[in-house]
TrEMBL record:
Cell compartments where the protein resides: Cell membrane
HAMP domain mapped to chain residues: 308-361
Ranges of residues in domain GGDEF: 405-531
Cofactor annotation: Mg(2+)
Enzyme class of the recorded protein, top EC level: transferase
BP-aspect Gene Ontology terms: signal transduction
Entry's Gene Ontology molecular function annotations: diguanylate cyclase activity
Chief place where the protein resides: membrane
Origin organism lineage: Bacteria, Pseudomonadati, Pseudomonadota, Gammaproteobacteria, Oceanospirillales
Top-rank taxon: Bacteria
Membrane disposition: Multi-pass membrane protein
EC number: 2.7.7.65
Name this protein carries in UniProt: diguanylate cyclase
Residue ranges of the TM segments: 12-35, 284-306
Length: 531
């Protein structure tokens, strides 16, 4: 698995935190908007439903009420005070028949009189029938001189739901002589009340009378009961319609009501709030899920894009700098930095690193050279030391082995040097050794190498030099020392052993040989050359 970089993790954490913050803000505002919209929508649906049901009821009963008004008024041409006369009775029955046929939904139209008699077509009342005792008669008396409220009731025989309206009949002296009433079928109204709303199927309608008694309700059990829940929350009678929110038996309801004054009905359209909340909550949860998914996807996409455009070049830069610092800087990088600020900065850093490294390398080379010089040079005389001389001799031996190039080696030791030290001190002794090195170097070829072998012993190597020539060089060296003006007018001589390297010699044997020759020169009186 690809390792996630620290920067990548930081970008991811920041963008995710930002996304969660946005989700929280969006979530709160969208939830509250959706909730308010949902409730508003339900309220509008309740209002519209209620309006349509009320309009239907009004439209349904209007012709019935007109028929009552007409039949009880002098316009009908009937004098009801003469109801006992045969012709009048016949005229009344004829009028009833016409109205029954022409007005839809009319079941019966009839009139009852003070004497208990009833005028009606196609109906035979029971033997003990007394019109004055019937509820419709009483209702009309109660509402005199207006038409009584619509009073729903169930027919005893057919079990059909009916509604009746009535109005008092008056004589010339404006005295009540009877009641004219219409019975109408309620099927159309009950059907209209029970039609479900397409968007809010749990919405239902019912009808109360002005005293809060349930006249019509989809739940049969509620009929003729007092609806305390809503009645307690209904505003005063002068408010004809409106919305209300009430709690009943632990449940909360949203309702819209409309008073139909001519009928004495209150048409209520309501819904249990829990039924409305459920789809709203579903919509909110679905929307929130979409927001969360969308925001997180956008965040991850943003992290990915940022990674591509920021982290990838930085990672490349990191690798490139590492390559350079590990000495693999000459490797051609397959990656080209992007053409933006990051790319420019990356290239600048790459260049800086390269320059810094080149500078460091130069410094290192100088230091190495200095170190090399120090390890190969004698501190006092500044000529090659024993280690370096061994290297040079070995190189000459190798050349000899390959090309048979001749070379000679000298070893010389300062005579009675101890006395110099003892007499003039160590510092002066040092100065003598420095002078010897300088004098000898100036009297030999550039290709010859002088080195200090240790103490007051020196060694000289002369490449491409045979014994005879080497002997001359030795003479020249000894003479130069002898004639040099040393401090304190000291007269310095050396004893010198000299050999030409020949086949059969090795590094060890040639060194041993010249050492012995030098020793012999000492033995033979010093200030001399032994070949
Ligand atoms: N000042 C000085 N003295 C040195 C140095 N290296 C060796 N010596 C001295 O050189 C002297 C060498 O003495 P010896 O080995 O007895 O030889 P010599 O006195 O030169 O006598 P012969 O070699 O027999 O002629 C010693 O006193 C060393 O201390 C140096 O770097 N500086």
């Amino acid at each position: 698995m690809k390792k996630v970089s620290k920067l990548q993790r930081q970008i991811f954490t920041i963008t995710t935190a930002l996304a969660l913050f946005i989700i929280l803000l969006l979530g709160i505002s969208i939830s509250s908007i959706l909730y308010t919209q949902g409730i508003d929508g339900a309220e509008t649906a309740l209002r519209n439903k209620n309006r349509s049901v009320t309009t239907l009821i009004l439209g349904y009963f209007a012709p019935l009420r007109q028929a009552i008004e007409y039949s009880t008024s002098p316009d009908s041409g009937i004098d009801h005070s003469r109801f006992e006369e045969h012709d009048t009775r016949q005229a009344i029955l004829n009028l009833f028949e016409v109205l029954q046929k022409t007005i839809p939904n009319v079941n019966y139209i009839f009139s009852g009189y003070e004497d208990g008699s009833l005028l009606i077509n196609n109906y035979t009342p029971p033997a003990d029938f007394n019109a004055v005792d019937r509820p419709w008669y009483q209702a009309a008396l109660d509402m005199h001189p207006l038409i009584s409220d619509g009073m729903p009731y169930q027919d005893i025989i057919s079990k059909e739901w009916l509604v009746s309206f009535g109005k008092t009949l008056l004589n010339a002296n404006e005295e009540i002589i009877g009641v004219l009433s219409i019975d109408a079928g309620m099927d159309t109204i009950i059907e209209a009340l029970s039609v479900k709303d397409q968007h809010y199927p749990t919405v239902y309608n019912y009808v109360l009378n002005t005293q809060g008694m349930v006249l019509i309700h989809p739940d049969e059990g509620m009929r003729d009961t007092f609806h305390q829940g809503i009645y307690a929350h209904l505003p005063s009678a002068d408010v004809t319609r409106g919305s209300l929110n009430y709690r009943d038996e632990g449940r909360q309801f949203l309702a819209h009501f409309d008073r139909i004054e001519t009928l004495g009905w209150i048409v209520v359209t309501e819904v249990n709030l829990a039924d409305i909340r459920q789809p709203i909550m579903k919509t909110i949860i679905f929307t929130l899920l979409m927001i969360v998914t969308g925001s997180l996807l956008a965040t991850w996409l943003m992290s990915f894009v940022l990674s591509r455009h920021i982290i990838a070049p930085l990672k490349k830069l990191q690798n490139r700098v590492q390559e350079i610092t590990e000495g693999r800087g000459d490797k051609i990088s397959e990656y080209s930095f992007p053409n933006n600020e990051i790319g420019m900065i990356s290239e600048a850093i790459e260049q800086l690193t390269e320059n810094a490294l080149i500078h460091k390398n130069v410094e290192l080379k100088i230091k190495n050279l200095q170190l090399d010089a120090l390890s190969n040079t004698d501190q006092l005389t500044e000529i090659a030391n024993r280690r370096k001389m061994l290297e040079i001799i070995q190189a000459e031996i190798n050349r000899f082995d390959r090309h048979k190039t001749p070379f000679s080696i000298f070893m010389f030791d300062v005579d009675h040097f101890k006395r110099v030290n003892d007499t003039f001190g160590h510092d002066l002794g040092d100065q003598v050794l420095i002078d010897i090195a300088r004098v000898v170097r100036s009297s030999i070829r550039r290709t010859d190498t002088l080195g200090r072998w240790g103490g007051e012993e020196f060694i000289l190597i002369c490449p491409e030099t045979e014994l005879n020539t080497a002997h001359n060089v030795a003479e020249k060296v000894c003479s130069a020392i002898r004639h040099h003006a040393f401090p304190a007018n000291l007269s310095i001589t050396v004893s010198l052993g000299l050999s030409e390297f020949r086949s059969g010699h090795t590094l060890e044997t040639i060194l041993a040989e010249i050492d012995q020759k030098m020793y012999r020169a000492k033995q033979n009186g010093r200030n001399r050359i032994e070949i």
